[in-house]
Amino acid sequence: MNVAHLLAEALPGRVVTDTEELARYRTDRSGHMAAGTPLAAVHARSIDDVQVVCRIAYETGTPVVTRGAGTGLAGGGIADSGEIVLCMGAMQEILEISTANRLAVVQPGILNGALNEELAGYGLWWPPDPASKDVSTVGGNIAMNAGGLLCAKYGVTREAVLALKVVLADGRLISVGHRTVKGVTGYDVCALMIGSEGTLGIIVECTLKLQPAVAGTRSTIGAFFPALEQAIDAVSRITEAGLVPAIMELLDRRTLECVGTYTAQNLLAQGSSYLLVQCDGPAALPDAEAVAGFIEAAGGTAFTTMDPDESARLVNIRRQAFPALESMGTMLVEDVAVPRDRVADMFRKVVELEDRYDIMIPTACHAGDGNLHPSFVYQGATVPDEIWSAAGELFAYALELGGTLSGEHGIGLLKRRWLGAELGDDLLDIQRQIKTLFDPRDILNPGKVFPASL
Amino acid sequence: MNVAHLLAEALPGRVVTDTEELARYRTDRSGHMAAGTPLAAVHARSIDDVQVVCRIAYETGTPVVTRGAGTGLAGGGIADSGEIVLCMGAMQEILEISTANRLAVVQPGILNGALNEELAGYGLWWPPDPASKDVSTVGGNIAMNAGGLLCAKYGVTREAVLALKVVLADGRLISVGHRTVKGVTGYDVCALMIGSEGTLGIIVECTLKLQPAVAGTRSTIGAFFPALEQAIDAVSRITEAGLVPAIMELLDRRTLECVGTYTAQNLLAQGSSYLLVQCDGPAALPDAEAVAGFIEAAGGTAFTTMDPDESARLVNIRRQAFPALESMGTMLVEDVAVPRDRVADMFRKVVELEDRYDIMIPTACHAGDGNLHPSFVYQGATVPDEIWSAAGELFAYALELGGTLSGEHGIGLLKRRWLGAELGDDLLDIQRQIKTLFDPRDILNPGKVFPASL
Question: Fewest Cβ atoms closer than 10 Å to its Cβ: which of A94, A168, A218, A256?
């Protein structure tokens, strides 16, 4: 029985078996590359199409890897030989925007940035803001429970989803969640789907909780500090004072060095760490003034602006971090999160690992929520063992500090071997049982998230 | 084998078999009364105690009904004959308050109000605010995913919980969620526990996400309208303008009549519906001014104040609704939620049902999130059939409008027969399987939430 043939017959015009296109689905932004090539890609145009794919997959026992824009950093959307790639990018309609109910109903393939452009015309926005937002899909953001720069103030993706339509492994369609802001009927299966990385069901329609566009001005502060500890001290002072900036990003010396080289400016002359803070809302100005005061008190030099160009320049120092590192080789971007008061410990660990392994680990941090991205740059197609070894030490230390393996990128393929260390045997076992409950034939993104069973 | 004896032996000093005390656990604030009396109550003092109870219950196949303060409105905490009542009220310690991490770790039996009193000293608060907050426990709030007046602005309980320790049916202890703001390792079992009404596990420790105390003034607006439609129109204008008041409560004519009688004032002379709005935060004053403008434009008369006493008087009209109705008989407080733009339809349905059934259904509404509380007052110990019949019509209509059976009170015993109508067969079946996965012997609050199986 040829699965590609069955698919092509059932869904004429939507199935691709061209090897050049299929080869693209062997990888994502994690840099990881599958050994083989998937058997076919289906470009779904409707919920019906997705149901047909699942029915064929279920009957033939064929794995289905659902894919948005392929911007994942943990290998969750990578397809290997013998697998169907279910591409959701063509399902990008906005089905409803309601200002009265502050919600939008969209197909999962719409890009986050495109949706927000449309919503702006209604005075609304959808807060999730992964760095990839201009090129990543809403469905992908939901499947990964995406984070971003704004989470400390505006929450993670889970808080921005009201309801979902989900196709189950066998092709049945269910609706989970509520169209209302409140709803407590039965278990929160909607929350279970969010962040499940395509392993429990396929998200085919999304009812999103919107917020009114933030009123008032926006004030941006860029600050250099002689020492990283001073920048962390400034963050503590800001937090303890009860301020909640929209953005609070911290770059270490190593990152500043890379960004400086990449953008041809001597950033290290200004300090060895950089803090970017943005305040918005009705109290943006007094908040920014208070933030600048805390920065100066902690030993930093703050530059505050409301000018859009100046602000873009300050923000750009942060935004260039990823491209700067990417220009140096292949990147393994790690994603640990620790309680805010342990961020300094985590940075110290990074320096210790750099010394001991004789590698560079430039690290940026969403300082408002303790989410660090230590980045390992390497040459070649696979992550060298010594880098995994250093990353493994990072993970273990994050757990020791009461933190987590992954703040926002997910587990995918790349971190599954460490999942058990965080969850413990009992919870890992429960999660496997949940997987089996939804996907008894193990066809939905198999091999992702969970470590290989014994 | 005598279960009460086994418990008393294992947990000396913590087990009560006094029938007078046990009789109290046959009911809660729903007014429903179990036919029988539970076999024993255990006042747990530690996680260990809870584990011991579960081990004995699991081995002997004895049901365990976990109970906070017994303030539930859906009968979720009611115990019947042959059941163990597990009382969590003695576990009320605050284990940690961290301003740096904006979190608190507490035992589940602490009262919401007591916790918030303590947090105020740190410039922090925990937002969930069910009407019962002074007398209900944090663990109970979490088990029910409690709502309240502030949800439209500050979210429901689910958004205010970072992590939980949970004792499983067989006595094992697991930790779910993250101590960090972000965390995406594996499935969100923490969200699954929140609102599970004691049917999946027993919450024994809670890591709560706190917010900084709201700075600035608070402005309160009380407004009377000649017609309910005008009040609803005002709410629409406020919402569409992108305003997010902390509180926005709507009372219908019938409720005003009852509150007027109860408090000896002629409220109906001022209008036939009442809207209470409270604005807080840095933009409280301009927001309140805008709100008052929308109220006047919709045909209402707004009275705005920042004086605490005057404000209390305006808020009190809303707060007296529940006691006023309770003074008239036993109450069945319903709890449907509908999309905000269908609130007017729901109110019309209430009036239609009043006429057709010849009963009174005073209705208050959290207007910011479309959550209505139509209240049926009756005499006697059990809900008359005709009231269930009218309530059943209400539920069906709420679902028709894209709403839900329960915005914040939960399913418990009282609404389980309608659960399937909302979830559909497939999702109901999945939820039953989740229940079986966590509680294979069906000993955790059995018979609650789910309709009786065939």
Answer: A94
Contact A179 B283 (CB under 8 A): no
Shortest distance between the Cα of B145 and any Cα of chain A, in A, equals 7
Q: B155: helix, coil or strand?
A: coil
CA distances from A102 to A97, A111, A126, B147, B346 (A): 8, 19, 10, 19, 19
The reply to whether residue A407 touches residue B243, judged by beta carbons under 8 angstroms, is no
B440 vs A: CB within 8 A: no
Of B101, B168, B408, the CB nearest to A340: B101
- The DSSP secondary-structure symbol of A445 reads S
Instruction: Determine the topology of domain A215-323 in CATH.
Output: Alpha-Beta Plaits (3.30.70)
d(CA B404, CA B382): 24
Contact between B48 and B14 (Cβ < 8 Å): no
A/B interface, count of CB pairs below 8 Å: 267
Chain B closest-CA separation from residue A13 CA (Å): 31
CATH number for the region A3-87 comes to 3.30.43.10
Helical spans, DSSP H, in B83-122? 112-120
In the structure encoding, which two tokens stand for residue A118, read together?
A: 């449309």
Asked if this assembly's ipTM is beyond 0.85, the reply is yes
Residue found under tokens 């992954």 = A406
Crossing angle of helices A228-240 and A343-357, in 10° steps, is 160
Residue A135 and residue A144 in contact, taking contact as beta carbons nearer than 8 Å: no
Taking CB atoms and an 8 Å cutoff, what residues of chain B touch A338?
180
Surface of A (207-246) touching B: CB under 8 A: 212-213, 215-216, 236, 239-240, 242-244
Nearest residue of B to residue A418, measured between CA atoms: B185
Determine the CATH number of domain A329-440.
3.30.70.2740
Q: Find, among A395, A243, A142, A238, the residue nearest to B212 by Cα.
A: A243
Going residue by residue through chain A, which has 454 residues, state the pLDDT in tens, using 9 for 90 and above: 699 999 999 999 999 999 999 999 999 999 899 999 999 999 999 999 999 999 999 999 999 999 999 999 999 999 999 999 999 999 999 999 999 999 999 999 999 999 999 999 999 999 999 999 999 999 999 999 999 999 999 999 999 999 999 999 999 999 999 999 999 999 999 999 999 999 999 999 999 999 999 988 899 999 999 999 999 999 999 999 999 999 999 999 999 999 999 999 999 999 999 999 999 999 999 999 999 999 999 999 999 999 999 999 999 999 999 999 999 988 899 999 999 999 999 999 999 999 999 999 999 999 999 999 999 989 887 889 999 999 999 999 999 999 999 999 999 999 999 999 999 999 999 999 999 999 999 999 999 999 886 5
Instruction: Find the closest chain A residue to B237 by CA distance.
Output: A100
Q: Please indicate whether the domains covering A3-87 and A94-212 agree at the CATH topology level.
A: no
Looking at 3.40.50.2300, 3.30.1490.100, 3.40.630.30, 3.30.465.10, the CATH number of the domain A94-212 comes to 3.30.465.10
Measured between CA atoms, how close is A270 to chain B, in angstroms?
Answer: 28
